[in-house]
Design goal:
Layout: E1 2-6, H1 11-23, E2 28-31, H2 36-45, E3 54-57, E4 66-69, H3 73-81
Parallel strand pairs: 1-2
Antiparallel strand pairs: 1-3, 3-4
Domain Glutaredoxin: 3-57
Protein name: Mycoredoxin
InterPro entries: GlrX_actino, Glutaredoxin, Thioredoxin-like_sf, Thioredoxin_CS
Length: 83
């Protein structure tokens, strides 16, 4: 499962979302400005910063989650290939 933490005004987020859509990669987008718990999560994995897009990939079976900060679509695809 891929979750992208975002804000409505983030250009990098819009670009990555479009790339995920074009690639047919299923994802959920969470607006950290509307979800305080999501904002806390993003801060916890980004040294206290609300850096978006932050992508969280949960493994299908076992393993550790993967967190990517401001990744390219190439980095997302590579991470998904490793899950």
């Amino acid at each position: 499962m891929l979750t992208m933490y975002s804000t409505p005004w983030c250009g990098y987020c819009h670009r990555l979302k479009s790339q995920l859509d074009r690639a047919g990669i299923a994802h959920e987008v969470i607006d950290i400005e509307q979800d305080p718990e999501a904002a806390r999560y993003v801060m916890s994995v980004n040294g206290g910063n609300q850096t978006v897009p932050t992508v969280r990939i949960l493994p299908v079976v076992g393993g550790d989650e993967i967190v990517l900060t401001n990744p390219s679509i190439i980095e997302v695809r590579a991470a998904l290939a490793g899950t």
